[in-house]
Amino acid sequence: SGNYYNQGEIRKKELEQSCFLLGIPASDVTVIDHRDLPDNPAIEWDTQLLATLVLKHIEANNINLVVTFDAGGVSGHANHISLYTALRYKYCCFDIFILFLCLGCCVLVLESVNLFRKYISVLDVPISSLLPADALFILTEEETEQARRAMRCHHSQLLWFRHIYMLFSRYMVINSLRLL
């Protein structure tokens, strides 16, 4: 629920505002508030618990595509890495990934890049275009501005380094993904 600084309720509302700007209705937003999944950049979440919750959500909502972090979590955030780990989890002698495929669900992971590439914004487009990826998304100026407006809804998280991120991060303009 984003309660790292005891701002869970504020961050839930900010998430709904951000999603609204992106055209996602509040009814399609699910916030999990589980005591064993604390919002903390240094805590790895329980893999089996998280894999179970994700699988149940996919089944209940007939989801056919999951986009998540890779093993680097883009920023090294332990919670982000835990999501990737949960999707790679061996569940009842099967990879949870195989169970997703049986449900008709594809999983894409967002590529973590080094610090230099992370902060060269549009200059990373030629580099990413030359490197292998299963999917490459390059946002238009209008889409990038929409993403910035959506991020600005997260007032409680807009620390100085996130302003730099919004200005210079490649992830505001380009995202390379690969199939899990």
UniProtKB/TrEMBL annotation:
The chain crosses the membrane at residues 91-113. GO terms for molecular function: N-acetylglucosaminylphosphatidylinositol deacetylase activity. It comes from the Eukaryota. Keywords: Membrane, Transmembrane, Transmembrane helix. GO terms for cellular component: endoplasmic reticulum; membrane. Its EC number is 3.5.1.89. The keyword Transmembrane applies. GO terms for biological process: GPI anchor biosynthetic process. Belongs to the PIGL family. PANTHER family: N-ACETYLGLUCOSAMINYL-PHOSPHATIDYLINOSITOL DE-N-ACETYLASE, N-ACETYLGLUCOSAMINYL-PHOSPHATIDYLINOSITOL DE-N-ACETYLASE-RELATED. This is N-acetylglucosaminylphosphatidylinositol deacetylase. The gene is Pigl.
